[in-house]
Known about the structure:
The structure holds 2 protein chains of 2 kinds. Chain A starts with a helix and ends with a strand. Chain A folds into 2 domains: 39 residues; 106 residues, no CATH class. In chain A, strands 4-3-6-5 form a 4-stranded antiparallel beta sheet. Chain A is an alpha+beta fold. In chain B, a hairpin with a 2-residue loop joins strand 1 and strand 2. Chain B is of the alpha+beta class. In chain B, helix 2 crosses helix 3. Chain B contains 10 helices and 12 strands. In chain B, the strands form 4 sheets. Chain B has a 6-stranded mixed beta sheet with strand order 6-8-9-11-10-12. In chain B, strands 1-2 form a two-stranded antiparallel sheet. A two-stranded antiparallel ribbon of chain B has the order 3-4. Helix content of chain B is 45%, strand content 13%. Chains A and B meet through helix 1, helix 2, helix 3, strand 5 and strand 6 of A and helix 1, helix 2 and helix 3 of B.
Amino acid sequence: MLRKMNKKAFIPSVLSDIYSFLVFVLIILVFFFLFEFSAKPQTADISGRNDELNANMMLVNFLKTNIETEKENITVSELITKYKSEENEDDKKLICDKLNEIDKNPHALLIDGNMRCGSGGEASPIGKKEAIALATIPSYGKTGRETTKVQLKLIKFGS
Amino acid sequence: MRKLKKKSNVLSILSVVLCLLVLIAAFVILIRKTGKFSRDPLGSRQMTLLETYQRGENALLYIDLSAKYEAAQSAYDLAQNGGFYEEFPCGTFDGFALWNNKTAECHPDYKKNFAAQFTENVNLRFILYEDSVIPLDNYNNLVLAEKENKLEIIGGAENPMKILVEKSEKSKGFISIRDLTCKRDGVTCVDGECSLTNDARAALIDAGTIAKNDGKCLYVTSSSRNIALQRKLYAAYVANPDENPLACNPDRLKKCPHVQGMAVDIGFSPHVTGCGNKEGLRKIMNGAGWVNLCSECWHFEFGTDAQKEWADLENTENKENVEFYKRGCYG
């Protein structure tokens, strides 16, 4: 019984199997190329900016730091305010020395964009590898109430 | 058996069709998933949040220091006025406040007067702060307590300070105009921001070319602004409209031209003291498609509704008879 049936149905069944197989392979191939060539590589920039946040925190903490002077206990920000409003050059120098005691690098902390304590000249342009933090503090000037911008420059590590 | 074979044929065909359907579905789903990255680097939004927090910390430092300085200043100011803030109930003599007169004793309520003087003084400090808007009249409930021969002042803010998490200038699509020079482009920027939309930048370069051919240079003194700066300018205008130029309120009008990067304040000089040759400036800017605000000779817009309306007149007949077109300014 089986043999008879096999003989009759052998060719069409094999043919339909082969066609199905071929169609299947064809489909797989078509989709392989579709997936392969429709996928375009996309790029997105990733930049490390951790240093900038650290610089900001460092600057705020630094400005809040207490300093003991002969007369009183004041913070660094108040010392900078005094430095800005002081007209007497000798007193200004004294404040400068105090600031230098706390922060040794005059290129790191800039007051209103200038290097402090008469180190000379304008601040160098900001390099790519420098993290910048900026804070505004109240101060007094010739016109009365003013603000002073304090900048902290840090050399970035890594790229 | 024939039936069986038929079924197996159907199965193999069905398998192929199913496979085809699955692959088509997978393809469609995957194609939809390939959304583009934004122009900003990955994590920019999160970084902006952290930066906003830092801005808040900076503002708090400024507020703390302002309060400290102005507490001392307020004590000094009050002492100058005999302890009174504004009113002198017993009058004055030779410029000095009296604490009594023939009919009454008028000793100052130092806590109340100090609070009023302090509020006025810190307000003057807060207005100067540029990075964000510090609310004014926000420390009215001051608590003054005497402690070991010292006066302790405790002030809690009535309303919280709001700092908007703003998109970066780059993500707004603004392009820098800082590279433009008088010598090469006939226009330069002396503003802090120095950025505009791409179209406005191109139109500014056109204006610069016209100016350069005329032997002149245009100075941009203000271009795109962040909302904080716009708010500050609006607050200054409201406080003193006679001395400060008209400023758009960014909280009411969502289309402030400077905030949208579609406006410049410009002149023949880097100092905003006037426009100089008002008509000459308007002619150059109109020539490049910019429209002027009639009440402010230095303010020009490109890409705003007013400018588009004005530019559309270019294509109309008898445009020379249209007053708005002839004037080249609106408002």
